[in-house]
Amino acid sequence: ADAQKEKIDKLLQDIQSRTLAFVAIMRKSNVQPPYPSLTITKEYAVAHFPHESASVILQRPGENKRWYPRFYEGNDGIHKIRGEWLDFVCDNSVEEGDICIFVPAKGGGRFTFTVHLLRAESKAHAGHFVPPYMLSQMSFLSPVQQSIVEDKAEAIQLEAHLYVAIMNKTNVGVKGHYIL
Q1: Is the distance from CB of 86 to CB of 76 less than 8 angstroms?
Q2: Is the dihedral of CA 40, 109, 14, 16 positive or negative?
Q3: Beta strand pairing call for 38-40 and 79-82
Q4: What is the full DSSP assignment across 2-65?
Q5: Is the dihedral of CA 85, 86, 87, 88 positive or negative?
Q6: Are 131 and 163 spatial neighbours (Cβ–Cβ below 8 Å)?
Q7: What are the Cα distances from residue 113, in Å, to 41, 72, 98, 109, 134?
Q8: Where does the TF-B3 domain lie (predicted)?
């Protein structure tokens, strides 16, 4: 949309990037666990990514944390970021409709990208809700479970996030073995 294009153009002017940026509007397949991935255009991958499958470095502007997703160069000519891409998505609350702008980092080393995030223009981001809990990887709460957990978290009033585990047979014991 024109409004999104204007925001992207303004951000690129503000950061004064001298290299070509890669802009991706997040789709469901880019952000939905358990195995989200991001396809990189062949032209951009050839110019800015490794010429074989390897880890790359992602960082957010003004932050020290780094993520090390794996870049895959497929035999079919498709180039993707996977693996710790899920950690980047979760840690930054990236959602469908958000825009990620990848800029090769100045002085950040080879295959290091600063990722700027523009939130989707939607009601969901108006007050961007961050839940007071964390779930184990590949776990999802139903709306009823989510409501129960949020009510309990509010009642406890902890300053830290809760860790929520959805219990199954392996958690409560099968033949004397317990796993959490």
Answers
A1: no
A2: negative
A3: antiparallel
A4: HHHHHHHHHHHHHHT-SS--EEEE--HHHH-SSS--EEE-HHHHHHHS-SSSEE-EEE-TT---
A5: positive
A6: no
A7: 15, 16, 17, 9, 27
A8: 23-121
Query: What is the rounded (10 degree) CA torsion for 16, 20, 24, 29?
Result: -130
Task: Identify any residues that bridge with 24 across adjacent strands, giving them in sequence order.
Answer: 100
User: What distance in Å separates the CA atoms of residue 103 and residue 105, rounded to the nearest whole number?
Assistant: 6
Report how far residue 116's alpha carbon sits from residue 157's, in angstroms, rounded to the nearest whole number: 33
Please give the pLDDT value at position 142: 72
**pLDDT tens-digit series, residues 63-120:** 999 999 999 988 788 899 999 999 999 999 999 999 999 999 876 678 999 999 999 8
Dihedral class, residue 16 (left if φ above 0, else alpha if ψ from -120 to 50, else beta): left
Could you give the domains of the chain? 1-118 (2.40.330.10), 128-174 (no CATH)
Q: For the chain, state the CA radius of gyration.
A: 19
Amino acid at 39: T
